[in-house]
TrEMBL record:
Residues 1-15 have a biased composition (Basic and acidic residues). This is uridine/cytidine kinase. Residues 1-23 are annotated as: Disordered. Its EC number is 2.7.1.48. The keyword Transferase applies. It is an enzyme of class 2 (transferase). Residues 61-243 form the Phosphoribulokinase/uridine kinase domain. Residues 301-494 form the Phosphoribosyltransferase domain. Keywords: Kinase, Nucleotide-binding, Transferase. The lineage of its organism: Eukaryota, Fungi, Dikarya, Basidiomycota, Agaricomycotina. The keyword Kinase applies.
Amino acid sequence: MPDEFIKNELEEHRPSTPPHFQTTRRDDLMYLQPRKNTVLVSHGRPPWYAEDGQRTSDAFVIGVAGGSASGKTHVARQIVHKLGSIPTVIILSQDSFYKYHNEEELALAHANLLDFDHPDAIDMPMFAACLADLKACKQSNIPVYSFAEHQRLEEKRYLYGATIIIAEGIMALHDSALRSLYDLKVFVQCDSDLMLARRIKRDVKERARNVEGILDQYLRYVKPSYDNFVRPSSSHADIIVPGSNNEVAIELICTHIRQQLQERSNCMRQRMAIPHRYLRSKSGTSSPESRLEDLNLAVLPKTPQLEGIFTILRSKETSRQDFIFFVDRLSTILVENALQHLPYVPKTVVTPVGVESHGMKIDADLICGVTIMRSGGALERGFKRVINDVPLGSLLIQSDSKTGEPMLLQVMLPAYVRLRHLAKNAWVFLLDAQIGTGAAAFMAIRILLDHGVRENHIVFVTFIVARGGGISVLRRAFPEVKVLCGAVDDRVREGWLEGYRGEGNPEGQGRQVWIMQPGMGQIGDRYYI
């Protein structure tokens, strides 16, 4: 398990409230605080990769600049509200990237004698690095700045999973490295008197400042900075937005964003569910069933005990109590067998009778589990029985109600994975009840790779796999991931979810779904309900 250095690293980067922000509800969006750095969640993040596992699109990044209190954050939130039902959005504030101050600088700051409005006050390289990571669909741990203390805190905030990123700040368009990351550049223009009035009201209410100090700082630093740096940066903007009465400009921006998201969309679940229609095997044929040896799966040996367990689990007559008991038993067996994929080194111990015994020990300090909710939760009890005292995270991935595509709704990953310098050495057990189309499994693996986990350090543990489903696509994209299952079912059958009226189904025949046969039914429902 981790040594003292790693424990200190994990403690330093521990999020304040899982997943990383407190939540409150407003309209149809979920606002995750603190106020200046906001994650807005509506219906999840669609696939950002192709069948080969490689990223096909970056996050769409918007840079919003303007004078202090010009309404940049308000414009950013107007854009989000106007877009309506959209994937996950991050509003990233430049204010988080103020530089760390020494004792002398802190004294000047508390006396309102430190220039926070000059470009040199911002750690531009860190801002650009964090934004570049988020744009490239990687995680980032951004600094937290306290305006009351005039200091960057030790705490950091974990961010990941945005389809749209809005970077806002007075210098958002000043730095060339930042400008190169934007897909759309916006400048918010506002009357100087209105900006000053807003600044006084904000700083008194939110930052515990007095009016005299606010005015002195405004005349000494804010106004010169606006004239010398902020206003000239408007020449780099693609669009100028008024600080008020800006509905037309917001609508134009939202129309452009919708078009860009549509062009970047990637639908692949059907191609995974019935891969023989789209992909050819190594032999050049398009067989609906892949040979087991071609799939490179680790399957539990077929013993009478194992067949007896599966017979009980597959039967619709099995009581919930018996189903839970045998699911826990099967998950324990699976995880025990999955341990063989960890590295081992020789170890010599002394027995109670004083004799040396030569054996083996696991050669991995950072081990964790990640459950694909909710059916993957059925393996958690077996995982905890076998691997003691290791962190366990979760991913909530569900099908979109209209398209059937997987949607990432929530990320709750262990610190080993959230921190990239630890993730490269972490071993992760992915837990899910079955791999049918493989869409959720594919997305989960891609998420771990985005965080820096090595492909050959991922062990996927599942009850059943459909031979004719998406497992063949999954194995081609991620050949180094170890997949261990209890049984291999023959096929995935196409069906329809009754009552859904949508594109291509005006009569309400339903949304297309895929069902494993013979399968075990809805494992999550049978286990939890």
